[in-house]
Design brief:
Number of domains: 4
Number of helices: 26
CATH class of the largest domain: Alpha Beta
Bound molecules: ligand LFPHGCPZ
CATH architecture of the largest domain: Alpha-Beta Barrel
Helix content: 40-55%
Strand content: 15-25%
Structural class: alpha+beta
CATH topology of the largest domain: TIM Barrel
């Protein structure tokens, strides 16, 4: 027992010893005091911190070190954790030689340990810490050391309590620091978000007062002062109507259980109108009571525009899938759709439906000679005209190339169809100005009627197709209703194209010659070469049929070259025989004439056949010459310089420009036979024929009348000073052999002894 003054000294000594120490130093010093006992080889201070046992400090005699750990006991090895825990439960000291305790294993203590002591430190009877001591001596030595340390145990209560409190305080301070840091961080984030966010963010209380708002508001809205939108009421910022709307929305939001999205349009300061996606959600306190509304508005103008553009593109693609890109008319797919719907309607109502298939005449020629751009413009113009000819409820579609189709519904009188077809023919045939050229084109129309000519779409189209070929065959520029029996001739027309190719290759073509006479002397002055086709199965095919076909398919170039070569060879033979020294006239196809190397081709043929150019006359139709007048002049000049004579054929049927005509280096005008037919009886025809004769003479040209079939026509022409004639009245076209016979037997007789030779 210590004396009272000794105890006071001891307290002072301890107070001095632990003065101004932190919790770590306190624990270390306590352990050092324990370790001062030589019997103690290891000392560990364990404290109860919030019901968790923490090893604060460990001292070992071997290393003479005291280490601060402050780690949960459960994480550490070489400690009899269960036994230490037990001491915390009972509050009793525990000591033993390890050899006597079965439950202890070598993993529970350091090697060399022979005895263990656990000394709990109680505060008001409750353990708040414990000293765990190991000794390499037996337990008696430890017990002795423990007795010596009694003062330490006594003061430990105070010091461990202080240590725990300090730790607790430190933890609280750390928690506070962390919380403060977190608060600072979230405030900083919030400020940064509100400052930099490219969205309109606003928090309002339930009265519409703005508590928070993003900087973006200031930039976009007419709120220019420092606080911007914050502190204001919606009614201070927005027009009253909009403010009321927003306020009412916010009121509704206080009951909302989830976010509410809507789109709104906001006019920016610069006057541009933007679309925003607004997401609103209620802000609730801990008691789930709504105290404010947050709204976040994102500018989706670009996205909307992109969506609109995409939608537009999709509808354009959709449009393109069903419309012809060039003309904008329904294409084949949409046409079939409309036709099928029309057929269904006609079936229901018991009415009629009409399909008109249209094919442009000579389109290939126009396209090839004027170029594809001109061809495209022509197709567009035709589409427009077709639309003008029908009612809104009718369908005009382009099936491809120069093929169009018109579907007429609700037809009561079939005569109306003829009326529409006539209207189309007249409308299309009006000249169209394209790239400065006046182009005249016509169309052939095949018509089929539901239910008479077919009940299905394909069937109707097929019969209309057959009728269209019939229209082509009948000289184009006309319409034909489908009739049974047409199949054969339409198919014929199709087969003809293949046959014509073969005909050129297999020499099935031949030339006939039709003499031309001087009207005053009746002497033979020329012969027009006219091609004939001796078809192996069909017999003689008229050029009126196959020349247009050849023009359309492009075979005309090959065919015309064959004609020119053959005619030159024949003329050369006649020249050589000395029986005929006139000219041979050859018809030029427009396409052939447009070939850039045409003069070279002619020169080559003349050279090959040995025919002098002065014995060749080339005929070009008036319409073809005028269509590309300036090019025609150039081409004619070259041919003229070569010594070739040039004649304008079918004169009077086209649109002649006298300005051009006088510049053509031509020698002859051939009056079309349509004017000669009634020249002696029809005043108009007579006036035209007379004008042409005068015009030719005034321009120092020869004039030839074609198609003279009767004496009175010849007489009339002679009296009007026409130079030459050609026609059945004098001689029909005949083979070279027949011509030969006439030449051998002294030539042709005219007047009252007309030589009528039948066509072979
Ligand atoms: N590009 C080419 N065109 C040619 C060629 N050969 C003929 N053709 C053109 O074909 C059309 C029809 O010709 P065709 O059946 O030979 O008719 C010619 C004469 O037979 C006919 N004619 C002559 N006299 C009369 C008559 O008194 N009455 C009457 N009804 N017909 C008559 O006229 C045609 C000649 O006409 P044209 O050429 O205008 O002088 C016709 O357009 C031919 O041009 C060829 O090789 N290439």
């Amino acid at each position: 027992m210590q004396s009272k003054s000794g105890a006071v000294d001891l307290i002072r000594k301890f107070q001095q010893l632990f003065k101004d120490l932190n919790q770590k130093q306190i624990a270390e010093r306590l352990i050092k005091l324990v370790m001062a006992k030589p019997a103690v080889s290891r000392a560990v201070l364990v404290v109860d911190r919030d019901d968790q046992l923490i090893v604060e400090t460990v001292g070992t005699s071997s290393s003479d070190k005291v280490v601060s750990l402050s780690r949960p006991m459960a994480q550490l090895q070489h400690l009899p954790a269960d036994t230490i825990r037990q001491s915390f439960v009972t509050g009793k000291q525990w000591m033993a030689n390890v050899a006597d305790v079965e439950s202890l294993t070598e993993r529970d203590y350091l090697a060399g340990t022979r005895s263990i002591l656990i000394y709990p430190i109680l505060d008001s009877g409750k353990p708040i810490g414990a000293f765990y001591c190991e000794s390499q001596e037996d337990v008696g030595s430890l017990i002795k050391a423990a007795n010596d340390l009694e003062t330490v145990w006594v003061f430990s209560t105070l010091l461990i309590r202080q240590l725990i409190e300090m730790r607790h305080h430190e933890e609280q301070a750390e928690k506070y620091r962390v919380a403060e840091q977190a608060l600072w961080a979230s405030e900083t984030y919030l400020k940064a978000i509100l400052y930099h966010s490219p969205t309109l963010i606003a928090v309002k209380d339930l009265d519409g007062n703005v508590i928070l708002a993003s900087e973006y508001y200031k930039q976009l809205m007419a709120v220019d002062d420092e606080e911007g939108y914050v502190g204001k009421n919606v009614f201070d910022v927005f027009p009253v109507e909009l403010a009321r709307e927003l306020w009412q929305e916010d009121q509704g939001m206080s009951q909302a259980t989830q976010n509410v999205e809507s789109e709104l349009e906001i006019m920016h300061k610069d006057g541009s109108l933007h679309t925003y996606l607004m997401v609103k959600f209620p802000l609730k306190d801990k008691s789930e009571k709504v105290f404010g509304i947050c709204s976040i508005c994102t500018d989706i103008t670009e996205r909307k525009q992109a969506e609109d553009a995409l939608r537009e593109q999709q509808s354009r693609l959709n449009y393109m899938a069903f419309h012809d890109a060039l003309t904008g008319l329904p294409n084949r797919a949409l046409f079939y759709d409309r036709l099928n719907h029309g057929l269904a309607r006609a079936k229901r109502s018991g009415g009629k439906l009409v399909a008109m298939l249209l094919d442009l005449d000579r389109f290939k020629y126009i396209n090839d000679s004027l170029g594809h751009d001109a061809g495209d413009l022509l197709l567009k113009a035709i589409s427009q005209r077709l639309k003008e000819c029908v009612r809104d409820m009718d369908t005009v579609a382009r099936l491809g190339g120069d093929e169009f189709v018109v579907v007429l519904e609700g037809i009561h009188d079939i005569e109306d169809v003829g009326f529409v077809a006539q209207k189309i023919l007249a409308t299309i045939s009006r000249p169209i100005t394209i790239q400065g050229h006046d182009i005249s084109t016509t169309v052939s129309i095949g018509i089929s009627v539901y239910p008479d000519d077919g009940t299905q779409a394909d069937e109707l189209l097929k019969t209309a197709d057959i009728a269209m070929y019939k229209a082509k065959e009948s000289g184009k520029n006309n319409y034909q209703f489908y009739a049974e029996g047409m199949n054969a001739s339409a198919v014929n027309f199709l087969l003809l194209e293949n046959d014509l190719r073969r005909a050129i290759e297999q020499d099935q073509l031949t030339l006939f010659y039709q003499p031309q006479f001087d009207l005053q002397t009746d002497s033979l002055v020329g012969m027009e070469a006219l091609v004939r086709w001796q078809h192996p199965e069909r017999g003689l095919v008229s050029p009126a049929h196959f020349i247009p076909l050849a023009e359309e398919t492009g075979l005309i170039v090959q065919l015309s070259e064959w004609v020119l070569r053959r005619a030159c060879e024949q003329q050369k033979t006649w020249l050589k025989s000395g029986r005929y020294a006139g000219k041979v006239a050859v018809n030029l196809s427009p396409r052939q004439f447009r070939q850039a190397n045409f003069p070279e081709r002619v020169a080559e043929i003349l050279a090959d056949t040995g025919l002098p150019a002065t014995h060749l006359e080339l005929e070009i139709t008036e319409s073809s010459a005028m269509e590309h007048a300036s090019e025609t002049i150039n081409m004619m000049n070259v041919l003229n310089q070569m010594g070739i004579s040039l004649a304008i054929d079918d004169f009077g049927t086209g649109y002649s420009s006298l300005a051009y005509l006088k510049r053509f280096p031509i020698h002859k005008l051939k009056i079309d036979r349509s004017f000669i037919c009634d020249v002696a009886t029809n005043q108009n025809d007579a006036a035209i024929a007379k004008s042409i004769i005068n015009l030719a003479h005034n321009m120092s040209l020869n004039v030839v009348a074609e198609g003279v079939e009767y004496d009175n026509q010849a007489k009339w022409l002679r009296e009007r000073g026409c130079d030459q004639v050609q026609g059945f009245f004098y001689a029909k076209p005949m083979s070279a052999e027949q011509i030969e016979q006439h030449l051998v037997h002294g030539g042709f007789e005219s007047d009252n002894n007309v030589v009528h030779l039948e066509l072979a």
